[in-house]
Amino acid sequence: MNEGPSIPVLVLSGFLGAGKSTLLSELLTAPEAERTALVINEFGEVPIDHDLVSIGRSEASGQKGRVVTTSGCICCSYGSDIRSSLHELLDVENRMNGARLARVVVETTGLVDLAPVVNQLIPGGAPAFGLRDHVVARRFHMAGCICVVDVTSVERTLDEHFECAKQIAFADVLVLTKGDLFAGDISHVIGQLRAINPVATIVDRHGRGFDVANVFEPRIYAPSNLSGDVDDWLALERVLAEEGRVPAGNDAPRHGRIRSFSLIRNSSVTYAQLSLFLELLKNAAGTRLLRLKGIVSVEGETETPLVVHAVQHNMHPLLRLDAWPSADRRTRLVLIGHDIDPNAVEKLFDALSGEGKSPPSGKTLALAVAVAVLFLGIGALLCLVLPRLLSHAA
Ligand SMILES: Nc1nc2c(ncn2[C@@H]2O[C@H](COP(=O)(O)OP(=O)(O)OP(=O)(O)O)[C@@H](O)[C@H]2O)c(=O)[nH]1
């Protein structure tokens, strides 16, 4: 087994769509990112962040082959826990011809409960169950916890999702994002963050002098320096782990009614079909849709796919890529939300796209609206959407 100095691990959290992958992509263009390994954890069965993070990846930094993607949330699943992923990275280092990893960045899911994750990385945390755990404890140490905060939505997110407050509380660095879209009072937002975490360094991604490499610089991470809540959450987690009462399995446990599902298609859609699908879905699902992201193959432009992002009620501008980020050229959409019927979303997509054969007729569009209304439960929104559909069909 490869022995050497302990490798620093930085945990990157932030609620769904806050901008974790974007920040990571920025890091990967910096020369300091050399020999950085990524563990990307996703809430859902179809990994997509792997491809999205590679956008903007620096050729010079040679990051390819140093990414481990885990599906299933690391705070929920023994099977994909953080220690297994780190152990895998030792094999990666063994293939680096004598070079050492400089650090590991673990991008968590937007819904992560950080207590069990941190508990697996700090001395005296979750009990070690075998050789693998002991090796990981010897070869890795936690060296920072970064939380990305979307200033446009954090207030509402804090009201509705306790995970968000926990992510903020565990951080030693808070990175504010989307200040460029925010017209409100940033000092009010900072006041809210300070009430949860009085000691973290707060930096603005759009502020003057922002240095992404500095954010990911390894340092001493000491949960005892954070708020008292953090110690209590870790203590509770230790008791649960020792008693074997940590919830396991992806269907379970820590995220209540929130579910993730994906839609995968081999065929392409037109730009108009995609736009209509996104608009109908957004209006139909309303606040039940927390996150939508993916890559879409567009008819006539199949070499340059579109990247789609929706964060709660905000649909971000579609982004065209110069090329597919990997060999997988299928349309892949991941949706995260609650009380959304996956079958209804698939039917809506297929009705609108006609499976990519021909543009949908007025009749098909009417069917699509019916599907949206019946399955997504939005009778009232019909009045909003129908006029647009009819003008589109005309
Ligand atoms: N205008 C603006 N958009 C941003 C900023 N940061 C991220 N975004 C956009 O927000 C959307 C989501 O960003 P991601 O980086 O994918 O967010 P994430 O936290 O990795 O998302 P999940 O992994 O799904 O939780 C994308 O459309 C980004 O381009 C920012 O500072 N300003």
Automatic annotation (TrEMBL):
CDD domains: CobW-like (cd03112). The chain crosses the membrane at residues 365-386. It catalyses: GTP + H2O = GDP + phosphate + H(+). Signal peptide: none annotated. Residues 258-353 form the CobW C-terminal domain. The keyword Transmembrane helix applies. Keywords: Chaperone, Hydrolase, Membrane, Nucleotide-binding, Transmembrane, Transmembrane helix. GO terms for molecular function: hydrolase activity; nucleotide binding. Pfam families: cobW, CobW_C. GO terms for cellular component: cytoplasm. Coiled coil: none annotated. Belongs to the SIMIBI class G3E GTPase family. ZNG1 subfamily. Zinc chaperone that directly transfers zinc cofactor to target proteins, thereby activating them. Zinc is transferred from the CXCC motif in the GTPase domain to the zinc binding site in target proteins in a process requiring GTP hydrolysis. This is CobW C-terminal domain-containing protein. It comes from Tardiphaga robiniae.
